């Protein structure tokens, strides 16, 4: 069971808007540093969203799983967060 709330959806929409802005910047041939700065902001936003989604999902799973499965879920969550 996944819990994607309105905040999460809004964060993703904001990141999508930022990416669209980066595309416009590239089409307008803006400076490299400005484009990279915006892309870094998008990446940071997405990293934060990933952490939030994994944390919320893990919290839900831990409340409903058996003791044996909890350890597996924690390991899976750690791998998802540190996977880069």
UniProtKB/TrEMBL annotation:
Q: Which GO terms describe its molecular function?
A: DNA binding; metal ion binding
Q: Pfam families annotated for this entry?
A: Trns_repr_metal
Task: Tell me the CDD domains matching this sequence.
Answer: BsYrkD-like_DUF156 (cd10155)
InterPro entries this protein is in?
Metal_Tscrpt_repr (IPR003735), Metal_Tscrpt_repr_sf (IPR038390)
Q: Which GO terms describe its biological process?
A: negative regulation of DNA-templated transcription
**Origin, by domain of life?**
Bacteria
The name on file for this protein is: Metal-sensitive transcriptional regulator
Organism, by scientific name, is: Lactococcus allomyrinae
């Amino acid at each position: 069971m996944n819990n994607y709330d309105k905040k999460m959806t809004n964060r993703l929409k904001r990141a999508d808007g930022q990416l669209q802005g980066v595309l416009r910047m590239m089409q307008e041939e803006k400076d490299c540093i400005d484009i990279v700065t915006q892309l870094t902001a998008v990446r940071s936003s997405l990293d934060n969203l990933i952490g939030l989604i994994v944390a919320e999902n893990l919290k839900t799973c831990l409340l409903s799983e058996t003791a044996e499965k909890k350890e597996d879920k924690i390991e899976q969550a750690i791998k998802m967060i540190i996977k880069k």
